[in-house]
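User: Can you predict the 3D structure for this chain?
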Amino acid sequence: MSVRHGQISRVRRPRQDAKSMYDRYSRFYDWIGGQFERKYALAGVQALEVKPGEHVLEIGYGTGHMLVVLANLVGSSGKIWGIDISEGMYNIALRRIQRKGLEPRVRLLCDDALNLPFDSDFFDVVFMSFTLELFDTPEIPLLLTQCRRILHKDGRIGVVALSKKNQVGRINRIYEWLHHYFPKWIDCRPIFLSQILSNAGFQVKRELLFPMFGLQVELVIARNHRKTR
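Assistant: Here is the predicted structure, written as structure tokens:
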């Protein structure tokens, strides 16, 4: 398998397999990989500059650490929703929210984000961290179309993802080889995040790049400039 610099690897693992894997590893996720991802996710939340009273959706909330951060940022006048396909992640995130006493302002769903069950123009902010790159290439624009629909005009989206931008080194090639041949274990793959958001109709406002074990993490903040009727 060879993936050229301008290509994005496909995600050929069935959705049910992904759900089953995260259900199994949800109890250990924070120790396996979550602790390494958390600092980048926190940088993404901070860059979004979430305000008290806002309505925020996190797609792929995992074990719920950023839900707690977001809930504290929106305060008692705001509201956080989260959607994740894994029931195991849902159960752990729910317990975390309950322990923090944040149930009045956080609502969790266990569902597929490709069919977001929310009204149009409902959210001020959408956030994703190491989630968008789990979707297959044809699914990414479908998900982002859903995000544009549920966001207010001029609403904000913040995405943290493995980045393929300027990545042509050996470690990146090895990682993508592993992703291709062992998709059940190496499920994320690098994507052209800023370009993907621009192509979906978002206006990119801020882009940051971080190194991570020889790979690269991209953080993009963008606005929804969908025309209203």
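Helices lie at 15-25, 29-48, 65-74, 87-99, 139-150, 170-181, 193-199. The chain has seven helices and seven strands.
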